[in-house]
């Protein structure tokens, strides 16, 4: 069985257990911690991250994939400390989110890819902690030229290292289709590609089209429904059941896109956050999975999605 890099070292894919496939601990922006020291209370974020993930561990969560890229304020030392303190495996990423560095826009995929490869093979920022997945992102309106450069660089890195690719998309615009086309052009094995945020829409034609291409679907924005143009968590869960009924339980993964607050929020913001997702990293465990069972999903379906699929995605599926 293959191993996957976590922030505490390589782990057998068979040992990942119940996995949340798209999460964050600290979510910020590149350079904030260094430029404005003290703005982010790292001690408080670390402590809260340990508390929240320890609670998740106590209810069965064993691994999270933290897709926080450097432009989202990746803090690899913090992830290491939170993993050690909570007992939850954390898979960190290389790659880039939506804030593509200006320098990248004047570069080429072949010039950028070695830096992704180094973070996978040698470690991140001199820490020795190796990335376990490559993150790329495109959003409303489709793939911008700078994002295409990053996407093609990720493809080069994937083929060189075998690391998996996780994408951020805006599914109402079918952005996953465009990402997959480019990855196909670059010769990436689509069995190594996870198309994220695929539950921001209910278009079964789009979702089934992606699944028939051979990718994995991340139904990974729970609870969802923060805006009127995206479905609430109940509707998202109905779509998951429809995909199970269509025979694709073995290609789905679930997650929240959750994070720990990076600053001390106002009372109003804290209440809004709690109202939106009262269960944090446990919303799926406490609400979505019971609802799936009410809709007719079996224990085997749920185990396949939450345990078997991450194992096969990072293993030798």
From TrEMBL:
<dbReference type="GO" id="GO:0016788">
    <property type="term" value="F:hydrolase activity, acting on ester bonds"/>
</dbReference>
<dbReference type="Pfam" id="PF02126">
    <property type="entry name" value="PTE"/>
</dbReference>
<protein>
    <recommendedName>
        <fullName>Phosphotriesterase-related protein</fullName>
    </recommendedName>
</protein>
<dbReference type="InterPro" id="IPR001559">
    <property type="entry name" value="Phosphotriesterase"/>
</dbReference>
<keyword id="KW-0479">Metal-binding</keyword>
<dbReference type="InterPro" id="IPR017947">
    <property type="entry name" value="AryldialkylPase_Zn-BS"/>
</dbReference>
<keyword id="KW-0378">Hydrolase</keyword>
<dbReference type="GO" id="GO:0008270">
    <property type="term" value="F:zinc ion binding"/>
</dbReference>
<dbReference type="InterPro" id="IPR032466">
    <property type="entry name" value="Metal_Hydrolase"/>
</dbReference>
